[in-house]
Structures
1.
Amino acid sequence: MSYLNTDQSCIDLTAGVVEAKDGTVSVASAFAGHQEAVQDRDHKFLTIAVEEAYRGVECGDGGPFGAVVVCNDEVVVSCHNLVLRHTDPTAHAEVTAIREACKKLKRIELADCEIYASCEPCPMCFGAIHLSRIKRLVYGAKAEAAIAIGFDDFIADALRGTGFYQKSQLEIKRADGNEAIIAEQVFEKTKAKFQLY
């Protein structure tokens, strides 16, 4: 939204940019205020995620990771790593937060939500964030901080494409023959019954 000011300057109110009649552009002070408000907001929610990380360790639930899902500036859920508590290697803070947010909001698509994570998400968590359609991710610590205390460097390597996955003992093979055909037919046979969101 723009309007023409009496001094022949066009002010774009949505971006905080002022363009004078001669074509010069300057950033309005409102933009700086907006940036500061976003930083304060991010700090507030990231602090909650960090508190969750501490809480999880103190409870003996899992590693020092926390996550918060936010919608319309309100905390939907605040979770920590529950790997040890649930004996579940997928119960990372971000995955747990997404699961709980989906249950609470009664939907699987979180496009109007943001997630705050105490640490850079692992590939699994990043995948969950992507699949849930969350619109924004803010994280605190880099993966190297977790690696420094013994967490697998696969996390950073996989995210940045720098690893060779030399630690993995996993053999990956695609089925062939009739097994592959039967598995592929599932999609064709269920497409009329299943609607993607």
Note: The mean pLDDT is 79.
2.
Amino acid sequence: MTDALRVGLVGYGSAGRGIHARLLREVGAEVVRVVTRNPARAAAAEQDWPGVAVDPDVPSLLAHAGELDVVVVASPTGDHVEHVTRALAAGASVVVDKPLATTADEAAALARLGAEAGDRLTVFQNRRWDPEQLTLRGLLEAGELGTVHRFERRWERWRPVPQDRWKENDTRAGGLLLDLGAHLVDSAVQLFGPVARVHAELRNLTTPAEDDVFLALTHAARPDGSTVISHLQAGALVGAPGPRTRVLGDRGAYLVTSFEGEATPFAALDEGDDAHEGWLVHGDERVPVPRAPGGHPDFYRAVAAWVRGTGPVPVDPADAVVTARVLDAARLSAREHRTVTLDA
């Protein structure tokens, strides 16, 4: 195996090129094969990665699986089952973009295939490496907030004219519940543990798929009997987005006001401060919190160690199945206007 990670990338759109290829370049990996039928995207891949081979379909790329260290599946969510199944059967180690699949049953089937193939599957839950997530985890571990009773996170945008793409138009595999909801739920579970009950409100205001999402998750009780309730929101028709994150405990609160350049009236609180990530708040008193080290490229550094046998799987596919079960419950809750209880 060469020093540089040799990558086959399925899809070269907003996820494949805009996220995965960017992070792969940052960690010194080499994209050597790309699957796309779009001439403009093929030209972009050839410009970005001189000498790259452009394949018209997944089987063509997988014919060269032995030349690759990892296959990254960045195709539309509705294609994940087919593409991951083919890649595992070809002997490849696989990174699949989130969500793992459109339903919990599909996700569980893929997780089983990955396990049977020698644990060669992981899921791109890169938001575990967000500075705010890392910083918040440090605060929780240090006990700065005391006993937390509520976690709020918003992923909101002001996009009154929607984009015309599969994420907005595919009512089975698109929509903000599966897209951003997969990140929001994973973040909540990683911080506060399993979900016992789910209440959801889902609407499609400007697109065929959901573009207005609210989830209320009641996490399993802690040993002392206390519980955390997570309120998670994603929306595309939000004229005043944010604040991004608010965590409430009996010793104080953690507040993150802005997020990745999204327009919000709360951003003024953080203007000109690049060393801190949010605020530790007690009423009208607020203290900036030093940003924890780390970032999204660390996911692919972990992938490199994983495929070389020197590190664990970056994200266990079983975690993605847990998230999928919560998202399935959210659909049921919204459809039947009731709270859904999950099995322990």
Note: The domain at 128-294 is CATH 3.30.360.10 (Dihydrodipicolinate Reductase; domain 2).
3.
Amino acid sequence: MTSAQDLAFTTLYCIIVFLGVIGNVVVITIVRKMPSMHTTTNYLLMNLALADLLTLLLCPGLYDFALTNVRIQGLSGHVICKLFAGNAVVPVTINVAVLTVCTIAVERYLALVKPLRNLRLTKDTVGYVIALLWLIALLSCVPDIQANTFDTESNKYPCKRPWSLDEYSLHKPFIIFTCVCFGFVSSLVLLACYFEIIRGLYFTKTICSESVGTEAERKAKKQLASLLIRLTVIFIVCTLPFSIYFMFLTFLGANFVQDNYEKLYIVHRLARFLLFSNSFCNPLLYALQSSNFRDGFKRIFKFN
């Protein structure tokens, strides 16, 4: 029987998936079709939009509650668990988004804080970097992909999932590795890069001093930095609670989890919803904060 909680989360997921898919498709279209948007940063933003788009399209939050006590069999069961309900593919796209956001932060740090060093990405190398990000994300999720299996014996949910209250205790090393690397370390990288950018913009004035570029160039640098800082804040707010939650779980005893299962399950659903919400928020940030994306939207869709 579908509960009020299930209906509430399904409605919320429907909203972020529908609007998020549209927003990410628009971002990808703008970067692809406008030559003026063909920069290394925008290519990385397009890759982020692609990862977010796939995350939303494969999001199991819309329907996974309905699979409880549903009997799926054979090959269809394995396909459904690996690609959709079991969350075997979504961690790859989420990790790609994390790595891409970190790469953008480092690239902007090098461009704005260390502009004289020959360490920046170019249009010729950014494609290789993007391919490397996808490879690293895929390799990091191999244990996750293997552990997501069709559960032929369960009387409840038909898939075994490491990122669930029922299975997490069997995959603690993998969960700790993922939370530390893609949750905490990535957040520290973002904070360190943007702290230096903010310091250079507003305190030491080394990034946008009067002797560096034209007024328009200085304004563009501040606007881009502002956009990326907002992107980072939303990223941390949406993704870090999920890592904190599972790190907390790894230190709990099995008896405590079973005794407080319902409460922990609600927190799990909230943390996971926040995680998927990041893929919905990103294109909104582009549209609201970047004049280049707003202008590109108007040109492509013929708005005056």
Note: The longest strand covers residues 149-150.
4.
Amino acid sequence: MPRSHVMTGLTAATMSPDTQGYGLIQDAAIVLSEDLIDWVGPAATLPERYRELPRQNLEGRLVTPALIDCHTHIVHGGNRAREFEMRLNGASYEEVARAGGGIISTVTATRAATENDLLSSALPRVDALIAEGVSVIEVKSGYGLDIETELKMLRVARKLEQQRPVRIVTSFLGAHAVPTGMDADTYIDTICLPALEAAHAEGLVDAVDGFCEGIAFDTAQIARVFDKARTLGLPVKLHAEQLSHIGGTALAAQYGALSADHVEYATAEDAAALAAAGTVAVVLPGAFYTIHETQAPPLQAFRDQGVAMAVATDWNPGSSPMGSLLLAMNMACTLFRMTPAEALAGTTRNAARAVGLPDCGVIAKGMRADLAIWNVRDPAELSYGIGINPLHARLLGGKT
């Protein structure tokens, strides 16, 4: 189709922030002008100035904003399928660790991989997400735990959008784990903060993340990383309250974080703090499912306080080897009792907030023409299906 044209014969789920639902427009029209949306509304009210533009009849299909996966770890070496098998055969986590498993196995594989190796392994993951209508993918570092490998991961993340029609947003996750034989404070001083400075100097960092948990870093240590991010003018986000409650969510709110992610053990007080800070709560049902967690995030507290909620895959080789954002939507509904409208908002407008992108995630005049066209009529079908991909086409900046 020409770069400027009218799409008709569709239902538009605009995901307008002014509505609690889908912002549905039945029998809608969407006008695309180059890479932007120029108009959306009922087809019967299409302004005269657009009536001579070429038309594309979508034959009753649903159009939504293109999806956004706002939390992934898709650049890494190796996999942990063998550990998965060992655990199912009765091995304990300690036995797996003694056999060289756990995050250390991924760190070892990632350090050993070349940039080309990491790029080659990450591209099929990108392709899988694009095939489900995803236009933006957040990609974290964190499997290097040394300066050069952290930089290598972020360089590869930047290359992904040169190889595929997708937008990549990077997060520096140097504060992911403590390397063997080093204490946390020494690691932050000698590796994490210097790596962040070096990555920022190369233009590789869009945001700074951390893992605030008893098995990783405490709030004081993460605060030091966030203070450095502030001096560099970088926004922050945080893995918080996944396995226990140690104050990560409150810390994220204190720093005005883009998002606090996982949040299974967050409290009503944490929800109030997130709301006051405008921080998005990102729920990650893939990790909840994989590690057999039983405490779900406090969705009702988030609703009561008006906290924006996003949904993501957390695609990683250990705790969430899940490559489907549509499945994450279904799991957020079935495991966390999220509504389908909340799940779609969580992978569109709220996910855009979680990665700091104000130009996408809704269908409105002036927004990027990043759209997903689905072979369904009811938007609830996107969360309803299990292992079903009803994507008809995806537009990135108006291009298929």
Note: DSSP finds 15 helices and 14 strands in the chain.
